[in-house]
């Protein structure tokens, strides 16, 4: 059900400010340094019900207690265009900050306005009555971060202003759901022994990375969840299409790929992250959310038998050594860091504060 602006705060009552104060675990989803402060973690149900869209970006959390703020979602020109966003000062990003002179640029790409199957119509088009904050037929319009405000018939970015209204390159009003498979293995020498970093002594982890055709940045292979599609299906499909070029394979070759990948994708896996993503395509009315899942090939045997071949949106695909020096698309560096923590692998030569136990 659409929530009018103010509804969440009213529902929260006088305890709203106190609830906000509890949250102080700070991890910025961008290329900025990560800072961590331990505090009590409230129930996830409270995060969804009370803290959705009315929190300042530095107080808006996903289910992993990660604070958000806009960095890449404020960059200009907007991807694939010459459109410049309206300037948004850091202290004016949050919707709770009154800004009467806010004058964002309206932009939706022609590729979206052309009406492809993956895109919504314009918000005022006759016959288009989206059910925001609900599953709308086969289209998932619920956010992984809880309820969001709908203002003047348009969903409002739960993290804050971006300087751009409309949908940009995104097909859906509101959340646009993606899935990112993080496929990893240990870096090994010719004898099959794990290779440790000379400074930290920790084993080096590698992941399958693609170079995106649209922007030239390195990224985790992944893509949009099709209407009605299970996340597990999207994760496997996107990896096959982008890292193994399955779309260009014969039926026999594709069947062999499926057989070999089944072992990897059916084993126990690690959900790295679920929620909002600071993405350069985000606007005030449309934004990216993702579920990143780690599939780890402990022995390396499965992936050794699968030659990487770029396909679909990927220009290049290869195994990449993981470290903090990686510069990846959107929030992918943060996802990769979480994977190294899971496996106790090398990340940084600087140990930094021991804060994220």
TrEMBL record:
**Can you tell which superkingdom this protein's organism belongs to?**
Eukaryota
The Gene Ontology terms for molecular function here are:
ADP-ribose diphosphatase activity
User: What CDD domains would the database entry show?
Assistant: NUDIX_ADPRase_Nudt9
Nudix hydrolase domain ranges (all copies): 186-342
Q: Which residues form a coiled coil?
A: none
One GO BP on record is: ADP catabolic process
State the GO CC annotations.
cell junction; cytosol; mitochondrion; nuclear body; nuclear membrane
Substrates-to-products reaction catalysed: ADP-D-ribose + H2O = D-ribose 5-phosphate + AMP + 2 H(+)
Name the Pfam families for this protein. NUDIX (PF00293), NUDT9_N (PF25969)
Q: What is its EC number?
A: 3.6.1.13
Subunit structure and binding partners: Monomer. Interacts with GLOD4.
The UniProt entry's sequence similarity note says:
Belongs to the Nudix hydrolase family. NudF subfamily.
The family database entries (PANTHER family) matched by this protein are listed as: ADP-RIBOSE PYROPHOSPHATASE, MITOCHONDRIAL, NUDIX HYDROLASE
Write out the function statement from the record.
Hydrolyzes ADP-ribose (ADPR) to AMP and ribose 5'-phosphate.
Name of the protein this chain belongs to: ADP-ribose pyrophosphatase, mitochondrial
